[in-house]
Write a structure and sequence with these properties.
This protein has a single domain, classed as Cathepsin D, subunit A, domain 1, CATH 2.40.70. The radius of gyration is 16 Å and the shape is globular. The strands form three sheets. The chain has a seven-stranded mixed beta sheet with strand order 2-3-11-4-10-9-8. The protein is 5% helix and 49% strand. With 164 residues, it is mainly beta.
């Protein structure tokens, strides 16, 4: 019996995606095959116990250069890991698992939480998330869609939301 392989979606080196479980309709990500794990911008990170489940509450500025837009997110803690950034600095980070929507693909992905305010991208999409699903064209950008203006309009100034 011969099984047909499903075609992999091609991504550019940067893409727009959504994190619906976190209430984020649009966030620009750097597609980074050099990073094993995906990373999500987070600040004011605090862990807590809710009904016997370890969770983390954090805030995010989902849009670059827009610190007036703040989304508060809550997610179960999947793990804690020591992570080395591109500069070789080691940091203990919380890990969450959440749904991502990228083009026509919806999948679960793990993200480490770290402050990326000084970085150009609020999110890195690492190779563990892309494996078996995506192919990257490093010469291209936004192959699964341009800036989703209608989704960005859903972010009012000083937006605050809690997603239990």
């Amino acid at each position: 019996m011969v099984l047909e392989k499903q075609a992999k979606q091609i991504l550019g080196w940067r893409e727009w995606l959504a994190l619906p479980s976190l209430g984020i309709p649009a966030i620009k990500a750097k597609v980074d095959t050099g990073a094993k794990t995906s990373a999500l911008h987070a600040f004011a990170v605090e862990s807590f116990l809710e009904e016997g489940v370890d969770k983390v509450r954090f805030q995010i500025h989902p849009l670059q250069r827009r610190t007036d837009i703040v989304q508060t997110c809550v997610a179960p803690i999947a793990d804690q890991r020591m992570v080395s950034d591109s500069g070789g600095h080691r940091e203990m980070r919380y890990v969450i698992s959440t749904t991502i929507v990228l083009g026509t693909v919806t999948t679960e992905a793990e993200f480490t939480l770290t402050d990326r305010d000084s970085m150009q991208f609020r999110m890195l999409l690492g190779r563990s998330t892309m494996a078996g699903i995506f192919i990257v064209d490093p010469a291209a950008s936004y192959l699964v869609g341009k800036k989703p203006r209608t989704k960005l309009l859903k972010f009012p100034v000083n937006f605050h939301s809690s997603n239990p």
